[in-house]
Write a structure and sequence with these properties.
The protein is 37% helix and 20% strand. The protein is an alpha/beta fold. One of its GO terms (molecular function) is hydrolase activity.
Length: 258
């Protein structure tokens, strides 16, 4: 695997930002790595960070590079600060950045596939919210979306971080039912004829977001949206996410490549 630490300028944000990228590499003699890389452009997983983290955190806290090596998949990890992957009411347009500009820039720099069946998104906590927002709001672009201990119900965030919530989303009334509300997006997808992405959701039973995850799982099922849901003992911590990101890679509907 090749690791690229990429600093670049974002026209959408009007500032310089960063992403870390892991690219497949076919190796034979590398000790301790089962590496594969097919021909052509690589399938890609956009891997999103949580509220207090940045683009380096998945590499620092998990073995994502080692796990991804056997699948021949590229991993793109962007920095979005505390934006909730949203065009902020008072701040920067991080939704436009992550949904439009980031994939275009990443494909211009690296040999990444633009085919829907080769594009996936996953994240933890705030990143789980971002992953499901991308999957539900842009079902024509992503074959699968995975949330690990995701912030599914923004009532929790509003209760504990009201000022920050309003800086990002505006008032609670304007948020509810908007294109930033996962429940509204799920209901919208249920009524549409769009091809639905595969969804994976997990949360530890001791996680403070557990009840919110169960609520959203049930909402998806009530709207006849299929979701692979898993729970087991676990808290909001990296030991759990390291285990589950490995599971996500196993679950992804990766097309067979030569």
């Amino acid at each position: 695997m090749a690791l690229i630490q990429c600093d670049f300028y974002s026209e959408t944000l009007g500032l310089s930002t960063s992403m870390n990228v892991i690219l497949p590499q076919q190796t034979v003699t590398q000790i301790g790595m089962d590496s594969t890389a097919g021909t052509g452009k690589f399938p890609v997983l956009y891997l999103l960070h949580g509220l207090s983290d940045d683009h380096t955190i998945w590499l620092r806290r998990t073995s994502i590079e080692r796990y991804a090596a056997a699948y021949g998949i590229a991993i793109v990890m962007p920095a979005v600060h505390r934006s909730f992957y949203t065009d902020m009411k008072h701040g920067y347009n991080y939704w436009t950045f992550v949904s439009e500009e980031l994939p275009a820039i990443a494909r211009s720099f690296f040999p990444l596939s633009d085919r829907r069946e080769d594009n996936f998104v996953a994240g933890l906590s705030m990143g789980g919210y971002g992953a499901f927002k991308l999957g539900l709001r842009c079902p024509d672009r992503y074959a699968a979306a995975a949330s690990l201990s995701g912030a599914m119900d923004m009532n929790h965030f509003y209760t504990h971080f009201k000022t920050e919530f309003e800086r990002i989303f505006g008032t609670k009334d304007t948020f509810t039912g908007s294109q930033d509300d996962l429940f509204a997006l799920a209901a919208q997808l249920a009524k549409s004829d769009a091809k639905r992405p595969a969804l994976y959701q997990c949360c530890g039973t001791e996680d403070f977001l557990y009840e919110d995850n169960v609520k959203f799982r049930d909402y998806l099922r009530q709207h006849q949206i299929d979701v692979t849901y898993e729970e087991e003992p676990g808290e909001h911590e990296w030991g759990y996410w390291d285990m589950k990101i490995k599971r996500v890679l196993e679950w992804l509907p990766l097309a067979r490549r030569t």
